[in-house]
Protein: Transposable element Tcb2 transposase
Organism: Trichonephila clavipes
Amino acid sequence: MVWAGIMIGGRTDLHFFDTGSVTAQRYRDEVLELYVCLLRGAVGPDFIFMDDNAPCHRAVLIDDFLEMENIHRKSWSVNSLDLNPIEHVWDMLGRQIAALSHPPSSVTELKRASSPRSLELFEPKTHSSSQSKHGKSLCSVIGYQR
């Protein structure tokens, strides 16, 4: 599984869950603590947090952590592309990787194919895909699994 966060004018690095299932504890330890708390601190009070309905995102452990960190979830339709801009990013990245002469067949190859240099190809589009009427501090946090 791969996780990423986007916001107006930027994005996180891709985070790969190399082995095992993504449990609520792993999601908290590897994503919320390492990325989301930092992004919230950088953005300030206008921070908007969005995730999908994956079971690891909806665990009591996660609800308690978000409450403790004063991070408020925005309830948006996860199926609406307009309200879920990271789906555009996953689509762009998927197309970019599929267009490679030798598409990756392992996690190691996928990491190499989605290196920071290759991700620069869709960075300008990330900015426009996260523009919405919901303000300039959108952070969309969705896991993607193929």
User: Anything to note?
Assistant: The longest strand covers residues 138-144. The beta strands are 2-7, 10-11, 15-16, 48-50, 138-144.
